[in-house]
Design brief:
The complex is a heterodimer. By secondary structure, chain A is α+β, with helices and mostly antiparallel strands. Chain A contains six helices and 27 strands. In chain A, the strands form seven sheets. In chain A, strands 9-12-13-17-16-15 form a six-stranded antiparallel β-sheet, with no helix packed on it. A five-stranded mixed β-sheet of chain A has the order 14-10-11-19-18, with no helix packed on it. The longest helix of chain B is centred in the C-terminal third of the chain and has 29 residues. Chain B is globular. Chain B starts with a helix and ends with a helix. The chains are: A alpha+beta, B mainly alpha. The interface between A and B is large, with 58 and 59 residues.
Chain lengths: ~500, ~160
């Protein structure tokens, strides 16, 4: 696809989403004109008049809706625009408040959750009462998928599952780490249009179905085992979370990808743990270990450490996620955890942070690129997991600017992040919308040629005469032939 | 028979109303036109209609424009759109885009919505709107380019006010 076509496609998709957010009065079928089409022509005028009256009612209803609170926390499927259910089934589905809400034991992960899509980012989860109740894994998976259909997305996310649809889960079969879900899809139409919406729905289904411990692969079929086809996209084969989360994932698990460093083992350390998700950069989980001495004074030295990311047995250890990133601390004496050493977080992708005799254990929802760097004053170990996939490669991770940010022509642009590149040298270039180079240069990170990543916080000059849609690219120039390695591409609006 | 209509109606109606609100900018007229489109489909018969969603869109668009010409009343809908914080774009961007769409010629509006919201192919658009398939691409590109300009102007205006 040409750049021009792709640009048009981006605006077209944004427009499509804008239209999708228009609140409309969804007149139920029972009250529609087509359900009440007269049998005799002579009635037509009467019904036409009724139609006008219905329109007036509809306008009043829209007005009233705009004034009513949109979300009722904790009540699923209470969207005021949803069509009233036929009276025959109203009693069974209209009583969510009288059902006892299942609770989560303290210290355990909350699996009563479903996943929502975010544009350009991996999915994110939210708690939904009773989403995941049931005796068997298949029951619990079906329960979550059912809840997903009517769940209200948290801020910053969308639910790509078509609203008010008669699509429903017919069968759920679990075999090892694979779950196969058959949906009943009227007319084989998922009512999802466009590649972006289809990708979003597929990612939501994969993440939500694999929320069940032990499940890693998800296969969706339709209407009795036929390959699911969501708009143009066929499901084809079982997907893992890593297939759909948007990262170009390089091999990042196991001992061969450990990040380790020697340190001082003669100090009795105090350790504080803090964590955040989505605050440094979207889809980025950051866990920080801060070290002080036994008297609480700042240190310049760190203990030795070794960090690895591995799959974990979430069926055996209920406190674990699908994956765990461990940071073993090599200290001569036992350290003292002063704060944050045992916390369930449950914000995608970070499930829990635990500090015990074995070290720091970070429970995660999926595999995404991760890195570790150290900071001084006070002495800290920082573990970053994920980030915006466009800003994250196997050797460069940008936290600012973020994709889509506005920058000023002729001004300095602040660029922050971390990298692990040859001789600490990061190359940058700015391209215009036709791909023409308009500026370039390079800068150094804090550290080169080590397992631990280096950091940078620098400014690059934006060209004075280039405005509109520009792309900032950062990469490592291959020591062999200068080609771009570990490229990240950040679209910017420059004015 | 009724079950089949219910299914068609529940599948197509919300999308059709949204598209017609976007194109005609009048929620009441859009709803009226959408209802009318279903009645017309009923009169024509489901079995006689190929590609129903595109058919409904075209009939609905015709109704909306017919009514708009009669009434010529453009409500200031976009200023009153409730912001929905889904973080995909700022609500200002969305209002800009929808308002910008309203500034395109009527036919261009309909074709842009048919392509990007309904996902119709060039051939389907050519077929439904009775234009040469060779001109669909150019019309779309022109429309999107105009949207881009209007949207950028809106952003710059807001930037200047900050």
């Amino acid at each position: 696809m040409s750049d021009e076509r792709r640009d048009d496609e981006i605006i077209g998709r944004a427009l499509s989403r804008a239209i999708e957010t228009i609140d409309v009065n969804e007149t139920p079928f029972e009250r529609s004109r087509v359900a009440n089409v007269p049998l005799r022509r002579g009635w037509f005028n009467v019904w036409n008049a009724a139609g006008v009256a219905a329109t007036l009612v509809a306008v009043v209803a829209v007005g009233a809706y705009l004034l009513s609170p949109k979300d009722q926390p904790g009540v699923v499927g209470a969207s005021p625009t949803s069509s009233p259910v036929p009276s025959s089934s109203a009693s069974s589905s209209a009583t969510p408040t009288s059902t006892p809400v299942a609770t989560v034991a303290p210290g355990q992960l909350d699996h009563f959750r479903v996943y929502f899509a975010r544009d350009g980012l991996p999915p994110t989860s939210a708690h939904v009462d009773n989403a995941g109740v049931g005796q068997t894994p298949a029951d619990r998976i079906a329960s979550r998928l059912k809840a997903l259909q009517t769940a209200t997305p948290p801020p910053g996310a969308t639910n790509a599952f078509p609203a008010n649809s008669s699509i429903s889960v017919q069968n759920v079969a679990v075999s090892g780490d694979l779950v196969t879900i058959d949906y009943s899809v009227p007319n084989d139409d998922w009512r999802v249009r466009g590649a972006a919406a289809s990708d979003a729905l597929i990612a939501q289904l994969v993440y939500t179905a694999s929320e069940e411990p032990g499940i890693r692969r998800v296969l969706v079929t339709q209407n009795g085992g036929h390959d699911a086809r969501i708009d143009q996209l066929g499901w084809g084969r079982a997907h893992t979370r890593e297939d759909v989360n948007g990262y170009a994932i390089f091999d990042v698990t196991g001992a061969s990808h450990a990040i380790a460093q020697d340190g001082n083992s003669s100090i009795r350390y105090q350790v504080a743990v803090t964590s955040s998700v989505d605050s440094v950069a979207p889809a980025l989980a950051r866990v920080v270990l801060t070290f002080k001495d036994a008297q609480g004074a700042d240190l310049t030295e760190l203990p030795g450490f070794e960090a690895t990311l591995d799959a974990s047995q979430d069926t055996v250890a209920p406190g674990d996620g699908k994956y765990a990133l461990t940071v073993k601390l090599h200290t001569g004496q036992q350290w003292v955890a002063v704060s944050g050493g045992d916390a369930v977080v449950d914000r995608t992708p970070l499930r829990a942070v635990r500090l015990d005799a074995a070290g720091l254990r970070i429970a995660l929802d999926d595999v995404r690129p991760w890195r570790l760097f150290t900071l001084a004053n006070p002495a800290r170990i920082v573990v970053d997991i994920g980030g915006d996939p466009r800003a994250t490669s196997d050797r460069i991770a940008l936290t600012a600017p973020e994709p889509g940010d506005v920058a000023n022509a002729g001004a300095d642009l602040t660029v922050t992040g971390s990298a692990r590149v040859f001789e600490a040298n990061v190359v940058w270039r700015i391209l215009d919308s036709t791909g023409k180079l308009v500026a370039n240069g390079h800068f150094l990170t804090s550290l080169g040629s080590s397992a631990v990543w280096g950091t940078f916080n620098t400014k690059i000059p934006m060209p004075a005469n280039e405005r509109g849609k520009l792309t900032l690219e950062l990469y490592e120039a291959s020591p062999k032939d200068g080609t771009a390695q570990g490229l990240v591409q950040i679209p910017l609006a420059v004015r | 028979m009724t079950d089949r209509w219910r299914e068609v109606y529940e599948r197509e109606y919300p999308r059709l109303v949204r598209a017609l609100v976007a194109i005609g900018r009048d929620p009441a007229a859009a709803e009226d036109a959408a209802q009318e489109a279903f009645v017309k489909a009923h009169q024509t018969g489901l079995d006689n209609i190929e590609k129903l969603s595109g058919w409904l869109l075209v009939v609905g668009v015709r109704e909306v424009f017919r009514k708009a010409k009669r009434a010529r009343r453009e409500t200031d809908l976009w200023a009153s759109l409730p912001p929905r914080d889904d973080g995909l774009e700022t609500s200002a961007d969305r209002v800009d885009l929808l308002a910008a769409l309203g500034e395109l010629p009527e036919r261009q509006r309909a074709i842009v919505v048919a392509r990007y919201y309904y996902g119709l192919s060039y051939d389907e658009i050519a077929d439904h709107f009775d234009i040469k398939s060779g001109t669909v691409g150019a019309t779309l590109h022109q429309g999107i380019e105009r949207l881009r300009q209007i949207q950028l102007a809106g952003r710059l205006a807001r930037g200047a006010m900050r």
